[in-house]
Amino acid sequence: MRTDTTVRDVMHREFLGASESDSLSDAAALLVEEETNCLVVVRGGEPVGRLESRDALDALLDATGDAEEAGPNAGVDDRTVSDAMGPPLPTMSPDDSLTAVEERLVAEGTDRVVAVDDGEAVGVVTDGDVLVAGAPRTGVDGFGDEAATGDLRRDETVLSTAAAADSDAERGAGATIDPESTADRAEVESRDETAGTDGGTDPGAGAASGASTQGVCESCGALVPELVTANGQAVCPNCREV
After folding, report:
1. Measured by CB atoms within 10 angstroms of the end CB, which terminus of the chain is less buried, N or C?
2. What is the full DSSP assignment across the chain?
């Protein structure tokens, strides 16, 4: 990850703004239309305030109440952005690092900063932009758990709560396998291990276990119904006695 990423590299050069003299109704409509929660209020390019959606809504509700009391001459259309705007958003230089932006966002308790060059707003950087760009984490709540490494670990898979529950269920199912089914599989595996490649009985397996089995005596070559182990060989009873 690049550690020299700056505000200029990630800022939105086209951002939503309004003038102090703009109609509050129009500004509120812009907030709804663009699905955002904040407008930058500028005066000739200089950021002088912010209009947040909750402040716009409160001001419009107040204006509606005033209109009901004062009559038709006092209405919502008389309210401007300046009636509802709050203090300016924090500002940063386009050459500031994203680490500095992150620290400023946390310190100010806001979700965006305005990039200002020569006194004019030239862009906006949000907390989402900082995360996407992979700025080093500072260990502050809300910015993930990557504080120890200083960068986003994009190659790791995050296990969701639902996925973790599924895994636990699978492990629980494995721990409650039917004992009879387990015994059946063990019996089948035992038969497979003792079966020869030609479909008959493997005399070597019988000799290794010490059990008698039919086969050819390794000493005299006779086919006998019963072989026994003697001196590491599968032999007939007659050769064993010799």
Report:
1. C
2. --S--BHHHH-BSS--EEETTSBHHHHHHHHHHTT-SEEEEEETTEEEEEEEHHHHHHHHHHHHHHHHHH-TTS-GGG-BGGGT-BSPPPEE-TTSBHHHHHHHHHHHT-SEEEEEETTEEEEEEEHHHHHHHTPPP---TTS-S-TTTSS--TTPPPPPHHHHHHHHHHHHHHHT--HHHHHHHHHHHHHHHHB-TTSSB-HHHHHHHT--EEEE-TTT--EEEEEEEETTEEE-HHHHH-
Encoding tokens for residue 94? Answer: 């386009």
What is the phi/psi pair of residue 38, to 5°? -160, 140
Contact 17, 34 (CB under 8 A): no
More confident: 119 or 230: 119
Which one-letter amino acid corresponds to residue 34?
A: E
Question: Which domains are present in the chain?
Answer: 7-133 (3.10.580.10), 201-242 (no CATH)
Q: Which two tokens stand for residue 37?
A: 């929660």
pLDDT of 139-186, one tens digit each?
444 444 333 333 333 333 233 333 344 444 444 444 444 545 445 554
| Average pLDDT rounded to a whole number, residues 74-102 | 90
